[in-house]
Amino acid sequence: MADAQNCAWVQDTLCNTLPAFVRALCLKLPADNPGFSSREEPTGDDGFPLDPAKREYLEKLIQALYDARGIVASYNIAILVLISAFAFRHWQQSRSDSSRYDNRRWGQRQTLQTVALDRETNGAASSSSASTILGTATPPSAAAAKDDNVDLEQLPLLSDSHWDRSRRKARKPAPFSRAISSWLARQPPPLPVVNRALPSNGTSLFVTAWLVLNVFFHFYRLPLRWDYFFIFADRAGFLFVVNLPLLYFLSAKNQPFRLLTGFSYEALNIFHRRVGELMCFEAAVHFASMVVWQFVLAADWLTASTTTWEYFTHPLVLLGIGAFTSYELLYFTSLGGFRQRWYELFLASHVFLQITALVFLYFHFYTSRPYVLASLGIFLIDRFLWRYGLKRATLTADLTILEDGETFLLSADWDIPRHSEKKSPWWWPAAPRRFSITHGWQPTDHVFLTVPVLHGLQAHPFTIASAAPGFVTETAEGPPVHAWFTLLIRAHGGMTADLLAYAQAHSRVPVILDGPYGSSHALEMLRASDCAILVAGGSGIAVTFPLIWALLHDRQTGEAAEPEAVVLEGGKGGLQRQARQEVHLLWVTHSRSHRSWVPEQQLSELVARGLHLVIPEPTIEAGRPDVAGYVSRWIEGSAPEGRHVGVVVSGPDGLNRVTRNACADAIGQGLDVRVAVEKFGW
């Protein structure tokens, strides 16, 4: 009778005092238990169990559960602090990049104005012998040829100008600092046996620090005793729940983290996968630990079910199993091998399993409901309000099969509508349809393509391979800006193979475009660099080509970028050499037919504007080129002069790793080099 009364008190205390997630301890005792009712008041003057030791243990157990709630709930505060630190760092870097970009453009304008004035003063004959254009650039545009309103006395000497001061050779960092920076930028080889590519050491270190943070919250003030093992199991489940909003923020295409930190979608997607993996691990720990507690560690007077069947068929446990199964299936269907083989199934299952898992979790875990509702809100707003409401556009596109027969272009063109800069009401994020692809895009942006006549429910991501027109406001002057939109698509199977077959019989197809999405981090970094190096592997040219076009064309003024260098050997004030931004492109192709992916005319135009272009022999004929050698020579040719070097690479994992490590070697030598990898992993 005493044990029955104790168990009744445990049920009532835990069920009424704590939320529903601990009711797995409180499963109803058999109705035929003699002399026992689950609501029977225990004997004793104070209404508590007669055994003081059990009463003290239960009080400590309940207090430990409540303590765990407060400890783990503060996890998101730590995440907000971490995000704030990255946002502040990004803000500082953006200011620095903007300052460098503005200073170089200011210096270029002053130099070109001085060239024009020198020619005006000395005449065409003398100026032709006094100035020289270096590199493969064309002469300055006519817009910068003459300015009668410029006062020569107000033009500063380049040696004392703000532009020159911003370019003074920086002091090399200490050897230890260089070694650390080099190690952080380096990318290790793939894992043996499984051949899984690893990110840079800096990314791995950040992920490790985040894992340590989660371990800290799991074990902080955790009673390390077997009779308190229930606290360990419960905290694993709660740690899973508090990571839910972070997981859904990272999976959203319109996430604020991209704007706050400047990281690309792919960089954030790496972290998104690690968050999902940890959550699935915590869910497995929670499930297994609860089973171990129920059938191995819990005292007889604490267990509320007498049979395994009764325990696993309880509604609370069934809901937990449903949530656990849904999220584990989400993990396995998100693995790279599964996505590559059955991408369409991955898309369909991802949406269905997310909704199902959130529903199960909402009813299983009482204190999870605020986190579940927040995650569901993030998912619905991103998926339906933004992607289906504001980011969606329907177009009729042209289909052009290229020389290799396996690659084709999907293209369209239109005049970009002007939009108002007037602020929207506080209750509405922006004017409807202002953010769709029809209003322009930026370099490295991507879209999700849906072809209703083939696969109306599938949306596949593709990087925009054409030059970015930018965005146009109502106050902009001049003729309408025309957008030339192109996707470079290689047929692998599924929707791409079906679309290639469709292109063989049709020249046009109606499509739905969801986007654009992306980050301006790579463009900002390259614009702030004195030497811009871009490395493309195969279809990675779809990422690098728009970047180069943006670097060599000024979309704000409509003028071409100035030539690489201007040398003044005399003239007013004795001006000397003023360096220009160097732009290098290394494009590694597999076969000669791949060169048709970018029209020869466009490449020639970029070369005429100052691009240093290198296209080695195709790898199918000559093997892999010395990518590290090209990149190292270009860096060493610019960085020792105190110039800032920005490197962007987009290609296969091996090419990305070789390029990144070449930059890491340069950083180890004390050179000012920054590198960004632009590769989308789905």
UniProtKB/TrEMBL annotation:
PROSITE patterns: FAD_FR
Locations listed in the record: Membrane
Topology in membrane: Multi-pass membrane protein
UniProt KW keywords: Glycoprotein, Ion transport, Membrane, Transmembrane, Transmembrane helix, Transport
Cleavable signal peptide: none
Residues of the FAD-binding FR-type domain: 340-523
Protein name (Swiss-Prot/TrEMBL): FAD-binding FR-type domain-containing protein
Protein species of origin: Lasiosphaeria hispida
Lineage: Eukaryota, Fungi, Dikarya, Ascomycota, Pezizomycotina
